[in-house]
Design a protein that fits this description.
The complex is a heterodimer. By secondary structure, chain A is an alpha+beta fold. In chain A, 46% of the residues lie in helices and 16% in strands. In chain A, strand 11 and strand 12 form a beta hairpin. The termini of chain B are far apart. Classes of the chains: A alpha+beta, B alpha/beta.
């Protein structure tokens, strides 16, 4: 991260993401339409299900297929597992240590062993959902176009239900715990964009809505995104045409979908004073805890209402065309677009991950934070900046303790 | 606790999934953190102790000029160096660039590829420095990771079989998807380690753990051709997460489909 200070005022903040490029959008060209579900999972080991789901929706859209009913519900259940696992990892192992003054989870566990153990137990249940439904916690093997290779057995569902009941109790405690942290003051004024469905909290359904009037489907969202390369980062920066930078992720979902939180999650949010108008990015840790509880309750609802379909997948035959898919990864909107030829060979790919959408927004927050904190020494400022970056749970999570901050004072 | 060995975890080009496997050992993580001194692990802590380290775990492949130098530094400060996952042991999915023009790839993804520092090839760590132990998989297996850590703490050799995953599949009592369904299964040439996961989910193995010892890819290719699988499908089967491992690279080349421009009408 580079901060330029001229005559006592911040003139420039650059977040330099140096993740080595891996060229997924290039090497997928020429592959079969059945392959992105497995291959794009490898973009992120922490949110592979998000990549699988956005890929499946986009490719099914290209082939004119909509997966509905119990197969769609099973996908949502799988996605609940990923939200629980990813959010809980971030809340406990990455973000909570910032608030409580520790370098990391291992040190946190020395002083707050019970809370860390509770977090690990909850994270494990999220992983178990992904393992039972997806076959493997990291890079699940059971996802395919049209649905799954194999459906969960009655016994697997019954055992999972017991674990989910336990997860609801744990997640409720976690909301109360993080709700009691002290939050640095910061108010953002970003346009917030999320998937909003009239009937339920946005994960895989609905339209892409903003708090300032954007209202489009997946194809319309793709058409509204402009991706820009900046010389200081290997991650492309996305902005919305004629609208500018915007915010995706838990804060946007909560603001736009608050009324669709399932009652136990909404009540837990209210109990810690988290309302739909929360605009302090540091309170995103509470939002993640509330969304975790919501995902646990939704998992229970799906398990209780699920009826086994006739087949684990519906057929998806190739045809020439273009398809779009957008879903809510734990860290925000993930958009995929594919162009296929008539035999299903991939001709074009576009993948817009949440972090490239939030990158300009993070820089914006850092600018204001640094501006207000110029009296801090560089090390304290660096820790505060790291904590602010973690508000967005960027997909550079390997690099979440990465900050090599250069302050140039002139 | 005296003389706890120090552990460092390093990342090169990768998805983070293999180092996440360590954090996914929910039941064992805090015990591991007591048995070893986690001295450098950016996914879990900002505290970074100076080396040298008793054990370094390396995830990811070498793909940038900076990383060529960095892997030498990591080796220099590490007594034992362990590579984890398909990226670190075979170059990963990003090694597909090795069979293409990386400049063309960069031009597809970036408007101005000049700013993108990248090497022509994605290579495993062992192509650059001596490696003491390798854990295969995309991602690695939690059980193998804990076996490796336990073996290092006890000063013994870890039990990491390289026989084909078919052995695990038979032990699990799965019907053979290749024989019964004619599915394009890489099991007969893929190393064990995952517990024969895919056949348990009624799908064919797609080679996450890379080649087994002495893999007979030629016989497998003959069998797949006899079952009616087209050459381009078989070619792609070997060109995924372990495409850069020599036996899979050779197998893919042996069924290289004709380029469209070379097909005469």
């Amino acid at each position: 991260m580079l901060v330029d200070i001229e005559d006592g005022a911040v003139s420039n903040v650059q977040l330099r993401i140096y993740e080595p490029p891996r060229f997924f959008e290039a090497f997928l060209v020429g592959r079969a339409y059945t392959e992105p579900a497995d291959i794009t999972a490898r973009i992120c080991g922490i949110c592979p299900v998000a990549y699988q789901m956005s890929a499946c929706l986009a490719l099914e859209d290209a082939c004119g297929v909509r997966v509905e009913g119990p197969l769609h519900d099973l996908r949502r259940l799988l996605y609940c597992g990923e939200w629980i696992e990813s959010h809980t990892l971030h809340v406990h192992l990455l973000h909570a240590p910032d608030f409580l003054g520790f370098d990391g989870a291992i040190d946190l566990a020395q002083a707050h062993r019970a809370e860390v153990e509770r977090g690990l137990e909850l994270k494990k249940i999220g992983n178990e959902i992904v393992e039972v439904i997806g076959g493997r916690a990291i890079h699940p093997v059971n996802v395919r176009l049209g649905g799954f290779y194999r459906l969960p057995t009655r016994k697997e569902r019954r055992d999972l239900r017991e674990r989910v009941l336990r997860a609801i109790d744990l997640a409720t405690e976690v909301v109360a715990w993080v709700g009691g942290f002290d939050f640095p003051e910061l108010t953002h004024d970003h346009e917030m964009v999320a998937l909003v469905d009239p009937d339920r909290y946005g994960v895989m359904d609905g339209r892409v809505i903003s708090d300032r009037g954007l209202d489009v489907d997946a194809a319309g969202f793709g058409a509204a995104i402009a991706e820009e390369q900046v010389p200081w980062s290997t991650a492309l920066q996305a902005h919305l045409l004629e609208r500018g930078n915007y915010l995706v992720g838990p804060m946007a979902r909560l603001a736009l979908g608050y009324g669709n939180l399932l009652p136990p999650a909404r009540e837990a949010a209210q109990a810690v004073g988290l309302g739909p108008d929360t605009r302090n990015p540091f309170r995103s840790i509470v939002t993640r805890a509330v969304e975790t509880l919501h995902a646990c309750v939704e998992a229970l609802e799906i398990l209780d209402g699920w009826e086994e379909p006739e087949a684990p997948a519906v057929p998806v035959e190739p045809r020439a065309g273009e398809g779009h898919g957008v879903t809510e990864a734990p860290r925000g909107l993930l958009y995929h677009r594919y162009v296929l030829d008539e035999d299903g060979t991939i001709l074009e790919v576009q993948i817009t991950p949440p972090t490239s959408q939030n990158q300009a927004t993070i820089e914006h927050d850092l600018f204001h934070l640094v501006e207000r904190s110029l009296d801090l020494d560089d090390l304290t400022l660096q820790h505060l900046a790291e904590q602010a970056i973690r508000n967005y749970d960027p997909c550079i999570s390997c690099a979440t303790h990465f900050l090599d901050m250069e302050v140039r004072r002139r | 606790m005296v003389n706890r060995p120090s552990l460092a975890v390093w990342k090169f080009a990768s998805c983070d999934g293999c180092q996440l496997t360590l954090l996914d050992c929910e039941d064992e993580l805090l015990a591991v953190a007591e048995a070893v001194d986690i001295a450098y692990f950016l996914e879990a802590t900002r505290a970074a102790a100076e080396g040298p380290y008793d054990v370094s775990i390396v995830e990811g492949s070498v793909t940038t000029p900076d990383d060529l130098a960095r892997i030498q530094q990591v080796r220099a400060v590490s007594r034992t160096l362990v590579t984890i996952g398909a990226c670190a042991t075979a170059g990963g999915i990003q090694a597909l660039r090795n069979f293409a023009d990386v400049r063309e790839y960069a031009a597809i993804v970036y408007a101005d590829p000049r700013y993108v520092a990248t090497l022509d090839r994605s290579t495993p760590i062992s192509a650059h420095v001596p490696v003491d132990l390798e854990l295969r998989g995309c991602p690695i297996d939690k059980g193998q990771l804990l076996e490796m850590i336990g073996a290092l703490l006890a000063g013994r050799a870890p039990d990491l079989p390289r026989y084909p995953v078919c052995i695990e599949c038979k032990q699990a009592g799965n019907p053979c998807v290749l024989v019964a369904d004619g599915a394009p299964c890489l099991g007969p040439v893929t190393a064990a380690g995952c517990g024969a996961l895919c056949p348990r989910y009624q799908r064919a193995c797609f080679g996450c753990f890379g080649p087994s010892e002495q893999p007979d890819t030629a016989s497998l290719i003959d069998a797949l051709v006899a079952l009616g699988h087209p050459p381009e499908e078989i070619h792609r089967l070997f060109r995924t997460f372990n495409a850069g491992s020599p036996p899979f690279e050779e197998a893919a080349v042996s069924v290289e489909p004709p380029r469209r421009s070379e097909v005469t009408p």
